[in-house]
Design goal:
mainly alpha; globular
Length: about 350
């Protein structure tokens, strides 16, 4: 007795003449593609804020004002990019804010105490900051504790170490001035210089920000690592089942946040040549807010690097627009909270609409 098995190529005609549709071959309308973009909500919000302050604040659209807005946005955006990638991967980092200060303190104190070239201190700071990021990722993947607990612990430890070591070494809460040390001018040129483009002064942090956004977008959309990040954030167990290196991916994401903290820390140091050890507390929430406004979901698996940049830009426009409009700056937190809620609701609606049209 023999059994005949019906074998058809994938996508071939089904019995009865029905032709199954392969989703990969379906054409997608430009409107559907637009609605599926995670940064759509933040772009709409940014345009609304731009138009609002263009009328509410005199001089908001002047070249000097735009330069100020871009600088404020870049100082947030440099950290919002790796934080967004981490959130797409399903985790977040509460130690990101104080890690910026830690990286600056290490660079300053090592260079000053060892009378070494500034670049030596910056290199030591890079290694130490990456080690903190690796520690966060390692503890998370090995202990299976929530990222809230792991990074909250790191946040508290770094906060205490920043204050404790600075007082122990320098007998004060701030570092010694390193402005006259070897290598300082070149380091300031890399991390804290001002460029003139078309008669407009642009801080170099804006270029760092654009570069990180471009790199992160390429990683997410054009590399295997980007697929791993989305897979890990969407369903960690399913990702592990198909061979995605979950632990390495998450450790790498935390080290990416650490690199962003190092860049931001060096800018902080070389802008003023001293560092206050208590700075950075609370900034981690700003980075997370910028990423969420930009379309990242707290639950992971959805978002974009460009969205985080738009979220940071929206943050910069709001913070400086209130100043230009000569309003009470105490209202800034109110507007920030309102933007967070509205952007989250809009992003959720956009995502549901995009899924419904597939």
């Amino acid at each position: 007795m023999s059994t005949t098995t019906d074998i058809r190529p994938t996508g071939g005609p089904a019995p009865g003449g029905d032709q199954p549709r392969d989703e990969r071959l379906l054409r997608t309308s430009p409107l559907r593609k637009l609605l599926s973009r995670p940064e759509l909500g933040s772009v709409v919000g940014a345009l609304a804020v731009l138009v609002f302050f263009a009328f509410a604040a005199d001089g908001f659209l002047r070249a000097s004002s735009i330069s100020t807005v871009l600088y404020a946005s870049s100082t947030i955006g440099i950290m919002a990019v790796p934080v967004a990638l981490l959130m797409i991967g399903g985790e977040f980092d509460l130690s990101a804010g104080v890690m910026v200060t830690s990286s600056a303190l290490i660079s300053s104190m090592f260079s000053y105490q060892m009378t070494a070239n500034i670049w030596v201190g910056a290199g030591v700071s890079l290694l130490a900051t990456l080690a903190v990021g690796a520690f966060n990722g390692f503890m998370l993947t090995r202990t299976k504790l929530p990222s809230f607990i792991v990074t909250l612990g790191t946040f508290l430890m770094l906060t205490g170490m920043n204050l404790g070591f600075t007082k122990l070494i320098d007998d004060t809460v701030s570092t010694k001035s390193i402005g006259d040390m070897e290598g300082f001018p070149s380091a300031r040129a890399v991390f804290a210089s001002t460029l003139s483009l078309g008669g407009v002064d642009i801080k170099i942090t804006v270029l760092w920000w654009i570069g990180l956004v471009a790199l992160a977008s390429w990683v997410l959309l054009r590399t295997r690592v980007g697929n791993w990040i989305f897979a890990v954030g969407g369903n960690e167990d399913a990702a592990r089942a198909v061979g995605v290196p979950v632990a390495k991916t998450k450790i790498g994401l935390y080290m990416g946040v650490a690199f962003g903290a190092w860049v931001s820390g060096q800018h902080l140091l070389f802008s003023f040549d001293t560092v206050q050890s208590g700075e950075g507390v609370g900034n981690e929430l700003i980075y997370i807010i910028a990423a969420v406004i930009g379309g990242c979901l707290i639950t992971g698996g959805y978002g974009s690097a460009i969205g985080s940049a738009v979220g940071a830009l929206l943050f910069g426009m709001t913070s400086k627009g209130i100043v230009f409009a000569e309003w009470n700056p105490d209202w800034f937190k109110f507007f920030l909270g309102a933007m967070l809620l509205l952007a989250t609701l809009l992003n959720t609606w956009v995502r549901k609409r995009a899924e419904a049209t597939k």
